[in-house]
Amino acid sequence: MKILLYLKHWQLFALLLFIPMIIKAGLSVAGIPQPIVAAVSAPLLVLTFGIWLFTIGTQLHRKLPEPLRESLTLFYISLFLSLAYIALFLLMAAGLVPGLTLINDPSPLSIFVFLVLHLSAMAGMLYCFAQIAKFIRAIELQRPVVFRDYASEFIMIWFFPIGIWLLQPRINKLFPEGQLYR
Tens digit of pLDDT for each residue in 24-33? Predict the structure, then answer.
C-alpha cells in the first residue's frame, strides 16, 4: 500500500471519504438493510485510514536517522488494537455480537466492555498519531523532537479529513517518486 505515500492530498481525501460514501449510497439504493450498509461502509473508511497510518508510520520510521529510531512494536500493537476495537464497536452497534449490544437496552456488561475498550482504543490511536507526527518532524528537522515541535502535525492527523490536505503534500515531499525504504 505504499502508493498511499504518493497520492495527492485530494486523491487521499477522496479515497478515505467519498468512496465509502458512494458504496454506502449504492447499498442503500439497492435496498440493503441499514445495519448491513453500516457494517460494510464504515469499516471500509476505518480500514483505509488504518492502512494509511500503518504505511506512513512504517515508511517514516525507516527514513528516520539511525540514532532516532526506536522500536515500532508498541505502534503496531496500538494501531491493531484500536482498529480491532472500532470493528467490534461497529458490530456491537449493529447488534451482530450475541450478548453485547449497544442498542435497545444495553446490558451493564456491554457498557463496561464498551467503556474499557473505547478508552484503550482512544489512547492507542492517540499514541499512533503522536508517533507519526513525531516521525514527520524528526525527519524534517533531522534531530530529536519534543511534543511542542510536532503538536501541529499531531492535531492535523487527529482531525484527519482536514489535516490530510496539509500533511499529505509534506509526506509527498519526504518520499519522492520511487524512493521508498524497504
Answer: 788 778 877 7
CA distance 119 to 58: 25
| Residues 108/41/18/30 CA torsion (nearest 10 deg) | -130
Specify the 3-state DSSP secondary structure of 87: helix
Q: Is the torsion defined by CA of 155, 158, 160, 162 positive or negative?
A: negative
Residues 6+ away with beta carbon under 8 Å from 154: 129, 130, 133, 147
Q: Tens digit of pLDDT for each residue in 126-176?
A: 999 999 999 999 999 989 999 999 999 999 988 877 888 888 888 888 887
* CA 59 – CA 128 distance, rounded (Å): 14
Give pTM, 2 decimals: 0.80
pLDDT of residue 94: 65
Q: What is the DSSP letter of 181?
A: -
SS3 category, 47:
helix
100 φ/ψ angles, rounded to the nearest 5 degrees: -125, 110
Q: Cell for 148?
A: 511542542
SS3 assignment, position 97? strand
